[in-house]
Each structure stands twice: as C-alpha cells, then as structure tokens.
C-alpha cells in the first residue's frame, strides 16, 4: 500500500509499506493492505513503517490518518 506522512514543514515518508502502526488517541493500531476505509485521530508517539525487512520509526505529536483504497495519508504535527 502507499503511505504518505506529511508535517507542515516536510514530508517524513512517501512510498510503499506492508504495515503501518499508528499512535491513536486511545492506543496503538495497525493498518495492513486492503484495510477498510477509515479516518482516525492520532496522539503523540511513533509511527512504525514496515516495508519488507526494513522498519522505520517517525515521531509525531498528533494528527489525523486517512485510509482509502490502499493509500494511507498521515497529516502529522
């Protein structure tokens, strides 16, 4: 699936991901390929991005995530 993590200053990540773990306001949740459409509020924490055997972490202070048609858009602070 395609993932974009965007802050007001820059793009933290833009590319493919097999798994995305996000810090929701009520706890962590994960997005996999073919996830149902959703919008979620995000809290402070780390976004975990897994693509094959590579894993990256990006710190955010909150934001919003949208999942639609195998695309995940994270608008983060």
Distinctive features:
ATP Synthase, domain 1, 4-stranded antiparallel beta sheet, mainly beta, 9 strands, 5-stranded mixed beta sheet
Q: Biggest sheet: strands, sense, closure?
A: 5 strands, mixed
* SSE topology string: EEEEEEEEE
Estimate the helix proportion, in percent: under 10%
Could you say what the CATH architecture is? Sandwich
Full CATH superfamily name? F0F1 ATP synthase delta/epsilon subunit, N-terminal
Tell me, what's the shape? globular
The figure for the number of domains is 1
Report the uncertain regions: none
Mean pLDDT: 96
State Rg.
11 Å
**Distance N terminus to C terminus?**
23 Å
Short description:
By secondary structure, this protein is mainly beta.
Description:
It is a single chain. The chain is mainly beta and 77 residues long. The protein has a single domain (2-76), classed as F0F1 ATP synthase delta/epsilon subunit, N-terminal (ATP Synthase, domain 1, Sandwich). It is built from no helices and 9 strands. The strands form 2 sheets. Strands 2-1-9-8-5 form a 5-stranded mixed β-sheet, with no helix packed on it. Strands 4-3-6-7 form a 4-stranded antiparallel β-sheet, with no helix packed on it. The model has no long low-confidence stretch (mean pLDDT 96).
